[in-house]
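Hi V.,

Quick status before I head out on leave. The structure for the redesign project is tokenized and pasted below; the design run finished overnight.
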């Protein structure tokens, strides 16, 4: 197929990252069984006493209206600080996660585990926060989120009501293309044209609970609930 602008940029990024990937593969050695993380050398989290849970929920709920009505500019400043903190405290996040998983920071054969922690921890959390920050900045300037890069209509046949449009949401900019080389994200929506909603439509407020996932550390759902839906959040980390 002919080289388009997007395909050429992806090829350039692959060539740019290839030496680092090859170097990492050559130096990677599978850890021995005795070096694998075990439950005996993991740092377990402290449990919250069950009698404290109702008090926590009540205190969180008391701030729901205040958080829902907080200004857009204040939320933007908070997100900027979150992104900054992900960079500043990534080493501390890495250290705590290594202890929780039983990863030995001095063993080069467990380097892939440390890279995984950075990727699914501060890296993912910072990237998600930066994406929401970009959307809120656009809303602050134009009143709507960033428009989709492209969309196409899928004919539903005889019934026009069955038509769908497929919206390309990712990547949106050079940073997202670098983070997910070769990856695209699409949304399938009903109708012939995607409609942008306002932040007021999605910012419903209230309180929600988020259960932490076991396969990655970044609590991205907290960011979505707080900054896009205007809710206070009670977060329960995964115990493992």
């Amino acid at each position: 197929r002919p080289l388009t602008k997007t395909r050429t940029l992806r090829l350039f990024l692959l060539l740019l990252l290839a030496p680092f990937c090859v170097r990492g593969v050559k130096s990677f050695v599978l850890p021995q069984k005795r070096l694998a993380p075990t439950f005996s050398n993991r740092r377990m989290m402290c449990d919250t006493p069950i009698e404290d849970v109702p008090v926590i929920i009540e205190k969180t709920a008391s701030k729901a209206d205040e958080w829902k009505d907080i200004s857009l500019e204040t939320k933007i400043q908070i997100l900027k600080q979150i992104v900054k903190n992900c960079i500043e405290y990534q080493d501390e996040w890495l250290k705590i996660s290594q202890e929780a998983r039983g990863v030995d920071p001095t063993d080069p054969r467990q380097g892939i585990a440390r890279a995984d922690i950075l990727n699914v921890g501060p890296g993912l959390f910072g990237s998600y926060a930066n994406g929401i920050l970009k959307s809120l900045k656009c809303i602050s300037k134009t009143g709507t989120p960033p428009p989709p890069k492209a969309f196409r209509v899928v004919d539903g046949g005889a019934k026009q009501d069955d038509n769908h449009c497929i919206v390309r949401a990712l990547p949106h900019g050079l940073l997202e293309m670098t983070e997910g080389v070769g990856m695209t994200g699409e949304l399938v929506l009903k109708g012939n044209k995607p409609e942008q909603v306002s932040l007021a439509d999605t910012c419903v407020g209230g309180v929600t609970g988020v259960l932490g996932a076991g396969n990655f550390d970044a609590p991205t759902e907290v960011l979505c609930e707080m900054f896009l839906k205007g809710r206070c959040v009670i977060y329960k980390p995964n115990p493992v």
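Above is the designed sequence. The longest strand covers residues 164-170.

G. will cover questions while I'm gone.

Best,
W.
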